[in-house]
From TrEMBL:
<feature type="transmembrane region" description="Helical">
    <location>
        <begin position="441"/>
        <end position="460"/>
    </location>
</feature>
<feature type="transmembrane region" description="Helical">
    <location>
        <begin position="409"/>
        <end position="429"/>
    </location>
</feature>
<feature type="transmembrane region" description="Helical">
    <location>
        <begin position="257"/>
        <end position="287"/>
    </location>
</feature>
<dbReference type="GO" id="GO:0042910">
    <property type="term" value="F:xenobiotic transmembrane transporter activity"/>
</dbReference>
<keyword id="KW-0812">Transmembrane</keyword>
<keyword id="KW-1133">Transmembrane helix</keyword>
<feature type="region of interest" description="Disordered">
    <location>
        <begin position="1"/>
        <end position="24"/>
    </location>
</feature>
<dbReference type="InterPro" id="IPR002528">
    <property type="entry name" value="MATE_fam"/>
</dbReference>
<feature type="transmembrane region" description="Helical">
    <location>
        <begin position="380"/>
        <end position="403"/>
    </location>
</feature>
<feature type="transmembrane region" description="Helical">
    <location>
        <begin position="69"/>
        <end position="90"/>
    </location>
</feature>
<feature type="transmembrane region" description="Helical">
    <location>
        <begin position="187"/>
        <end position="207"/>
    </location>
</feature>
<protein>
    <recommendedName>
        <fullName>Protein DETOXIFICATION</fullName>
    </recommendedName>
</protein>
<feature type="transmembrane region" description="Helical">
    <location>
        <begin position="154"/>
        <end position="175"/>
    </location>
</feature>
<dbReference type="GO" id="GO:1990961">
    <property type="term" value="P:xenobiotic detoxification by transmembrane export across the plasma membrane"/>
</dbReference>
<feature type="transmembrane region" description="Helical">
    <location>
        <begin position="214"/>
        <end position="237"/>
    </location>
</feature>
<comment type="similarity">
    <text>Belongs to the multi antimicrobial extrusion (MATE) (TC 2.A.66.1) family.</text>
</comment>
<dbReference type="InterPro" id="IPR045069">
    <property type="entry name" value="MATE_euk"/>
</dbReference>
Length: 489
């Protein structure tokens, strides 16, 4: 397949100043508009897909919030901490496919994509088996971390009911990256929307109408994820990806060592980001009146999650754009795409900041009936807004890292920013200076700020011509065995 037939690699790629194309518009506005149209081919559906999938968690947490403060705190810890750990690991490891599938697709080697997908399934399913231990021993782990006994016990019980979710993640994320690399994103949007509609109805039925409480919440949330997984699996196996999916193959069990290395680097990079939310929740549980602090932090993280869906959509788009363009040998196109998407993300997140600040005394009532919790949420709304604004750039640059294959470098940056600067400041402000939840959150904001500055410098100083050669070498090395075997059939 010629790379120019890709929806994200059309002949109009010349509009962004890449090498050797036919069209060269004179104005920056024309180039930017052309790039935006290509970005939104993936970003639009990706934003909706992220919103619909995140809503599976959000709907459950919102309905449980009306059962009581202990129930909300327990589900909040399970969703944000325990499930957050698993989600981060699985999404991170699955993101290795964004680099490999995206660059292979850009280079026109479609037959390699299905092999990469199956290798990722093998690795993530084995990882899922190991991660079940985290859910099984959730209660003693949470108590060891200093969480309230009642909250830890209920969160642990809920975690055991949520074990099927782990394996849904293991199958889901590789399929998403596989489809995303080929710009088959609209189908994911419709499948996610259908799963959400079913989840909305069943959650209302089981949690509220039938009064099944946390059992109903676990049943419906697990079912929602597995409906999503089965929908995507049926689409792939039905022949809709005939050039990239050539059937199950024993090649899935070859070259696993290199694949594991990139998967682990991807996981570490993204986990260090996702786990900052977990740390805030855990540290909040060590404060006085932990129910109020954890509930307020959970609600704010829920709101932040909603606001971050657009940057996450941009993350998907830019990882596809960068990996496709590098695989196709167009470095200037990749660089220009990065600039455009960063500016778009800043604009959208600024709008969210304005909305949060103007409704900070109102929106907490959507999530809880407790007056003290609502008051606390209103108090930390300014910190929530600062986090959302700073995070307008960071997810996009993480997408650039995934598209280019810089996961290891960015993992080190995230480690230093979040856990040396951010965590250190959180402990100092939250406990040493007794600033409570505000201090904990403020400390993490300092880590995000440091990370964002470093990522901007690294991306700005990148030699994109060199990255094209790195992409070619990666495709040649990792695809040689797959190409040879598949071409002999």
């Amino acid at each position: 397949m010629d790379s120019s037939s890709s929806p994200l690699l059309p002949k109009e790629t010349g509009l962004i100043g890449s090498e050797g194309e036919e069209h060269h518009p004179s104005s920056l506005a024309s180039k930017t508009w052309a790039e935006l149209k290509m970005l939104w081919q993936v970003a639009g559906p990706a934003v909706l897909t992220s919103l619909f999938q995140y809503s599976l968690f959000s709907v459950t947490q919102t309905l449980v919030g009306h059962l009581g403060t202990v129930e909300l705190a327990a589900v909040g810890i399970q969703n944000m901490v325990l499930s957050g750990i698993v989600f981060g690991i699985m999404l991170g490891m699955g993101s290795a496919l964004e680099t490999l599938c995206g660059q292979a697709f850009g280079a026109g080697h479609l037959n390699m994509l299905g092999i990469y997908l199956q290798r990722s399934w093998v690795i993530l399913t084995f990882t899922a088996l190991l991660l079940t231990l985290l859910y099984i021993f959730a209660t003693p782990i949470l108590k060891l971390l200093g969480q309230d006994d009642e909250i830890a016990s209920l969160a642990g019980k809920f975690s055991i009911w949520m074990i099927p979710e782990i394996f849904a993640f293991a199958i889901n994320f590789p399929m998403q990256k596989f489809l995303q690399a080929q710009s088959k994103v609209m189908v994911m949007t419709w499948i996610s929307f259908s799963a959400l509609l079913l989840h909305l109805f069943l959650s209302w039925l089981c949690i509220i109408k039938l009064d099944m409480g946390l059992v109903g919440a676990a049943v419906t949330l697990n079912l929602g994820w597995w409906v999503l997984v089965l929908g995507q699996l049926i689409y792939i196996l039905s022949g809709s990806c005939e050039k990239s999916w050539t059937g199950f193959s024993w090649l899935a069990f070859t070259d696993l060592a290199s694949f594991v290395g990139l998967s682990l680097a991807s996981a570490v990079m993204l986990c260090l980001e996702y786990w900052t939310l977990m740390i805030i929740i855990l540290l909040a549980g060590l404060l006085k009146h932990p129910e109020i602090a954890v509930d307020a932090a959970s609600i704010c993280m829920n709101v932040e999650g909603w606001c971050m869906m657009i940057p996450f959509g941009f993350t998907a788009a830019i990882s596809v754009r960068v990996s496709n363009e590098l695989g196709a040998g167009r470095p200037r196109a990749a660089k220009f795409s990065v600039i455009v998407v960063v500016m778009m993300s800043i604009v959208t997140q600024t709008i969210f900041v304005i909305l949060i600040l103007t409704t900070r005394k109102v929106f907490p009532a959507v999530f809880t009936d407790d007056v003290l919790v609502m008051k606390k949420v209103s108090q930390v709304a300014l910190l929530l807004s600062a986090t959302i604004f700073l995070s307008s750039v960071q997810p996009v640059l993480s997408g650039v890292a995934i598209g280019a294959g810089w996961q290891t470098l960015f993992a080190y940056i995230n480690l230093g920013s979040y856990y040396l600067v951010g965590l250190g400041m959180s402990l100092l402000l939250g406990f040493k200076f007794n600033l409570g939840l505000e201090g904990i959150w403020g400390g993490m904001i300092s880590g995000i700020a440091v990370q964002t500055i470093i990522l901007i410098i690294v991306t700005w100083r990148t030699n994109w011509e060199n990255e094209v050669q790195v992409a070619k070498d990666r495709i040649s090395l990792w695809g040689r065995s797959a190409d040879a075997s598949l071409s002999s059939k």
